[in-house]
Structure to design on (1446 residues):
């Protein structure tokens, strides 16, 4: 009998009612037009494109996800390269625009060796080069004649860009730069696409000319041969090894040994080094680049919405299918028989999941508002008006920090809310958590970023106190600080739970709480002489408080101001979004309760009302739970999750995916002959048929000593009941 | 030129001062005898054993960790089997006791296919079998003549054991049981060791005899042939596929098709089925098994201490080595030169890490106390006294929930506190997080467990109100509830920050806060008729509040009551532990601030004092940070972390581990010929030497359209600066 008999499950149905029926029942309860809510968020055009592109990808072997969860690191890199290649062909075949290509990448939902080529190499070449350099670098890059990456971070320096060690010394004799890595810590590290794929890198190196160090500047450097792809002489380059996630990307390291590059490699759109003399010419106003950072961060916020949307779609659908226990006080019936309660009916499950659904919508409104303000600001800056920039840039730092921290935490909460099966890769949530995680560190570490926001908040506070700042539509910070200073002993006016649904009450509360915190920190630093370092904990808190105000405000105002929501047909959508905005605000208030209690703004009686209102909102939203995640319109191809399948066939999908596990393709495990057989055949038991008969038992059973108490390995007792 | 040239780093030193020097400077600052603190926690005997065993393992190829972070799933399973086999030999060769074997497993720090054989199969056979069954199953298991697992959880049921679907029907005609899986959801699932290794399983199945269903009972079932290891007829068995972590274990599924087993397979120590008649005989007092659960949970608490110890050791050491920015207000000097500040000097970093160090010690004292009470209770139960049991069992549920949730959250906090490099598997924290994670779900889901604790707390509250419960040394719950009811309007007496160091003040505060929460929930349920389900959020909160009281109390009382700490030589140790206990308590109080403010127990002035005291404690503990993690005595072999190395050679270790990355064993990546070469050679540039010369540039550069605003993939902008 061959060993290569794949394991197949018997053809049995799950215990009823089936996931299909349960989800259908949920969908029947939805109070609004799910498809119309999708259109409101994405536009019909975009949804149609996504549908078309999904169909294309589903028939493309290079975009097949079937084996995604079983691959080794090498297989991941190899299949990623196939996807990269095929994508360049598909773009031509399908005549995809840049947007459509991005939709394809979104749906594929996995970074690859070429990702940084598109997202950092090309954009940098677009914005930081002269026309000559565009011809030399950008055009070949757009045609994939060269593949690039962006090499900034070093083994010893990440957050502190000014501390980078790699040098680029101008050599006037040959009109070249010499790139050099003086220490082990100066090795470039973490560079996506560099490990194995890239032929070129934008290298951030300290510009040294005429003996003077001008700090980090960008150079476009060839690193591998275009003939045979081997590293060029003077370069040590490779992959940095396995990571927590993101293993489909070849994050790499590179070291340079007195490596010469031509003068034209210095990206010279802004600052310049004059050929021959080596004279350094400073860049114009650095503020311009802050605009780009706002744009990047607005997109991270929009991205965090998709992260939340994916996680909540999976967790909500599975929670509607998965049943555990009977809620004796309120048993669920099906065909007049009591069934186990779907876990989504437990208040705790709702409390874990529905605020994350609300946050998804909150992120949408804030991302949209950030992009609107970005446009306004870009226009204004063109006319030399930098009024908008400071507030926008400061808020964008804290918002990047807050939304990505919230998103990653919700992904994990959603995963845990799926019980044991959340821990299976088939949930779609484990690898997703790992891959999303870098967002809390890159583009500015989330703790460090809060300092930027708070520095601005404190400065603005001082200006308001000094009468040097007046409220404006575009600067809500000044508005809430001014209101606070007018009445620093204000109290919340709520007298009954429903008062907490009043948008004005909510906004006043969040504004007051942020302002109070800022005032406290300003007092500690300005009056009591506390150092910045000693105040870092509170500094992070006021950034968070400010950004929570921004998120809540953008949600509430976004709903009020959007004309497309005011039609009678969209009344049900508008209603459910209003309920979500209230849940988002009040749940956040409850999480941050101490900061509302501390200034005496909220009383304990009001807190009881607030908590009651949160539970009541969960109850109100519950029937729409599945509809609200369906509206995210994420196709099964994108989710690639057994638990999150649109049709609710959770258990069928789990078993089908288990059948694919490579270990199940043989009946007897590799290692049996060497590791198991020698043990179990030490005493050969008599065998009756295929069964063991214990005929040679030893005479007595000896009790073993008690297990050691002082010390027990921490999963020594980790036992099976995983779900 | 061959492609198989492994990449090697140049022989350069990191930028100074080196990690070695920085850690040496830290160690010089330690105020206490590190080795003596280790002895206090582990005993000298245990430490000596660990050292001996570490030496043995480091020379054993089957226990080598060098390739751990690069392995595919199949390699993980295969190397795990080799370790399992070699361990059985080593135990004999080295004459290891059970404790010593556990130390070896602890040091190896990775579960394997045989883990559940030792931790569930054998213990179940020890406690649930008759003497006949011990001979039949336990003795061969101890000799590894059979390999077992524990099959309880099913695809559709985990938490709700009573909902299990697998049946075991007694067949009087043949005196057999017939095991059957009636539905797809009845498939056993998540069973460690079952996927590929086990020959036997303890199967929990609904006992049906004479037409009556008696619910889940344990059976010992052979599942694979002892001749060739193939699954026996009537059985479908395999691996459940890749998981978020724990991929060195073959968690499996199994389904039975009318599978017959002999009458003796029913584990009959407690309940019995009479042969022939099939009459069911009930088990004696079920309370006895609660004692075992307390023991298991006490060990999970002790285990969570090791999890925290590992994570904090890595993060603290690396934070002392890693330098970023110069703290202008207080620049760090080295040889009279300003150097970048080690990140551990930033208050935020201390706030993120030092409370986790304090929690590690807190878990130690609570684990120790739980084991002491377990012994007391076992003695008492033998004499028919069940007084201790209820409180102990209830607290153990909530403590398992709280400590594992805290541990997993701290592991991730520590990982993030290591910046970008925390995301590398070489940090030792990524895979560790993944492998520890099941602890929050198994042995009782952490949310569900809180209900057990709270049910007891509410019952006790009602008893105290009714005058039916009196305070005792062994029941602190009754004590704090009684105190609260005597003065439900109590206020915190602190008038200056240092007052918060008073142990009595701390304990009163935690007791009051727990009691207040319990009283509120009791009122909602008993007076206002709220359902249990609608109160689940608050129910989880009171369990947490109670368990935080227990953790704080055990730490404080443990220090006061331990005679071995009262010697003059141990004064410095006792002092630093007292400081840690204060930090643990006050940091917890700050995290849970709302619950101390809500009842008016703490004022906002007192809160300011509390916060100031926390910062001041961080400052006090800071010089001992490295000493306190060194005292955990975790060898480098155990940590297997580039960032946590005892010698501080962080960057050397990172590069050495990167050299081992399989992708770096060839110069040109697999897939280059098929995926990269066809792209970059579409236009063949003229080549001068090995460099590209752009001689065929296209005439003009066309600006591409703006990137789509409505929609951007969420790591489209995820950029390099990872650290």
């Amino acid at each position: 009998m061959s060993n290569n008999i794949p394991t197949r499950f018997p053809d049995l149905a799950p215990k009823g009612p089936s996931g299909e029926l349960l989800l259908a029942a949920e969908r029947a309860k939805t109070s609004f037009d799910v498809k119309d809510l999708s259109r409101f968020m994405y536009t019909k055009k975009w949804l149609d494109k996504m549908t078309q592109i999904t169909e294309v990808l589903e028939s493309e072997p290079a975009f097949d996800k079937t084996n995604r969860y079983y691959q080794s690191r090498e297989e991941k890199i190899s299949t990623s390269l196939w996807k990269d290649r095929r994508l360049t062909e598909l773009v031509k075949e399908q005549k995809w625009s840049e947007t459509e290509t991005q939709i394809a990448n979104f749906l594929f939902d996995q970074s690859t060796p070429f990702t940084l080529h598109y997202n950092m190499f090309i954009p940098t070449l677009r914005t930081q080069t002269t026309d000559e350099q565009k011809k030399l670098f950008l055009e070949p890059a757009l045609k994939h004649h060269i593949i690039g990456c962006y090499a900034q971070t070093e083994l010893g320096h990440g957050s502190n860009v000014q501390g980078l060690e790699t040098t680029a010394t101008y050599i006037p004799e040959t009109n070249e730069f010499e790139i050099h890595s003086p220490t082990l810590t100066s090795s470039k590290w973490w560079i996506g696409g560099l490990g194995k794929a890239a032929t070129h890198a934008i290298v951030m190196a300290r510009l040294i000319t005429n003996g003077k160090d001008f700090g980090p500047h960008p150079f476009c450097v060839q690193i591998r041969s275009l003939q045979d792809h081997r590293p060029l002489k003077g370069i040590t380059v490779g992959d940095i090894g396995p990571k927590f996630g993101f293993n489909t990307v070849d994050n790499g390291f590179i070291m340079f040994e007195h490596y010469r590059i031509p003068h034209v490699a210095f990206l010279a759109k802004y600052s310049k080094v004059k050929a021959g003399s080596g004279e350094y010419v400073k860049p114009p106003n650095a503020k311009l680049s802050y605009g780009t950072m706002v744009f990047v961060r607005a997109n991270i916020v929009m991205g965090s919405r998709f992260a939340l949307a994916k996680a909540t779609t999976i967790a909500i659908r599975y929670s509607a299918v998965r049943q555990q226990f009977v809620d004796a006080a309120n048993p669920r019936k099906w065909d007049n028989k009591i069934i186990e309660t779907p876990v989504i009916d437990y208040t705790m499950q709702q409390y874990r999941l529905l605020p994350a659904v609300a946050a998804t919508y909150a992120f949408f409104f804030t991302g949209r508002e950030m992009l609107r303000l970005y446009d306004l600001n870009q226009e204004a800056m063109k006319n030399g008006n930098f009024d908008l920039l400071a507030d926008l840039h400061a808020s964008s730092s804290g918002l990047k920090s807050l939304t990505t921290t919230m998103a990653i935490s919700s992904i994990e909460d959603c995963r845990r809310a799926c019980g044991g099966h959340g821990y299976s890769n088939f949930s779609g949530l484990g690898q997703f958590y790992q891959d999303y995680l870098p967002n809390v560190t890159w583009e500015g570490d989330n703790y460090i970023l809060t300092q930027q926001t708070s520095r601005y908040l404190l400065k603005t506070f001082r200006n308001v106190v000094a009468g040097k700042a007046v409220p404006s539509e575009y600067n809500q910070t000044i508005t809430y600080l001014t209101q606070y200073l007018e009445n620093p002993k204000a109290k919340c006016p709520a007298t009954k739970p429903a008062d907490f649904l009043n948008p004005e009450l909510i906004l006043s509360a969040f504004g007051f709480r942020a302002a109070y915190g800022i005032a406290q920190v300003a007092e500690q630093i300005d009056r009591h002489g506390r150092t910045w370092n000693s105040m870092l904990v509170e500094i992070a808190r006021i950034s968070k408080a400010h950004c929570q105000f921004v998120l809540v405000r953008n949600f509430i105002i976004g709903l009020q101001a959007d004309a497309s929501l005011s039609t009678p047909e969209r009344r049900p959508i508008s209603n459910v979004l209003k309920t979500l905005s209230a849940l988002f605000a009040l749940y956040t208030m409850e999480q941050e309760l101490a900061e509302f209690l501390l200034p005496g703004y909220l009383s304990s009686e009001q807190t009881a009302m607030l908590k009651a209102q949160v539970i009541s909102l969960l109850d109100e939203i519950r029937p729409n739970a599945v509809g609200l995640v369906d509206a995210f319109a994420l196709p099964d191809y994108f989710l690639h999750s057994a638990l999150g399948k649109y049709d609710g066939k959770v258990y069928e999908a789990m078993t089908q995916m288990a059948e694919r596990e490579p270990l199940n393709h043989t009946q007897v495990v590799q290692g049996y002959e060497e590791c198991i057989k020698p043990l179990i055949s030490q005493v050969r038991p008599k065998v009756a048929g295929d069964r063991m008969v214990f005929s040679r038992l030893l005479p007595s059973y000896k009790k073993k000593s008690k297990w050691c108490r002082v010390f027990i390995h921490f999963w020594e007792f980790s036992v099976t009941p995983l779900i």
In short: The two ends of chain B are 36 Å apart (CA to CA). DSSP finds 22 helices and 15 strands in chain B.
